[in-house]
Amino acid sequence: MHFEILVEDQSGRTALEILLPKIIGFEHTFKIHPYKGIGHLPGNMKDPQNAKNRILLENLPKLLKGYGKTFKNYPEDFRAAVILVCDLDDKSLEIFLHELNTILNNCEHRPETRFCIAIEEGEAWFMGDLKAIRKAYPEARDAVLETYENDSICGTWEKLADAVYKGGAPALIKKGWQAIGAEKTKWAKEISPHMIVENNNSPSFCYFCKKIHELTELQAY
Fold it and tell me: Is the pLDDT of residue 38 over 80?
């Protein structure tokens, strides 16, 4: 099985480059495509006027159409799937998934696709394994980590920053979005190697693993 994985930023790419081999082993292949932010789905569900902007959701209709045409021409014994991984942020999960499926269903050739939404943010997947955070950051503030409720809408990256970053989220926010992005990538690089994927407490991470496993099991038949 081959996976084409779409992520909204560099930190997502860094995390999945480490985590995917833990989930699928080395029998299957994958390629991760990082974008420069999540953006918004186009209101008319059509292709963007400027595809070069590298904003994930704005490019999604064109991407899925392209993968559909490409996958259609693959040999029958070569299976491939698109996996979209992005943050829910403050959106309604039900409405968001409906919009995503509408785009997929509008493709002339629908690629095998799974939508895996991190609730509320990608850092929720790290917070699902507090032991991994503590191994990466032995001085992490337990008082902060223990107040986190898995996949809650609470400002997840700020909660992680409060636990592991000197001065917490306020100090990091003062440095601006570029510094925040760099720190998120650093968390991905340092926490992901310690994560035990089978013991993660984030429901959205477990859903991601389940969908990957379902696809690899289909490949076996």
Answer: yes
Pair (108, 186) in one structural domain = no
The number of distinct structural domains making up the chain is 2
Parent domain of 12? 2-121+201-219
- State the Cα–Cα distance between residues 173 and 158, nearest whole angstrom: 9
CA 85 to chain centre: 3
- For the whole model, what pTM was predicted? 0.93
Residue pLDDT, tens place only, 66-124: 999 999 999 988 999 999 999 999 999 999 999 999 999 999 999 999 999 999 999 99
pLDDT-based confidence at residue 191 (cuts at 50, 70, 90): very high
* Residues 101 and 79 both lie in one domain: yes
Tell me the CATH number at 71.
3.40.50
Q: Which amino acid is at 133?
A: I
| Cα–Cα distance, 134 to 141 (Å, whole number) | 9
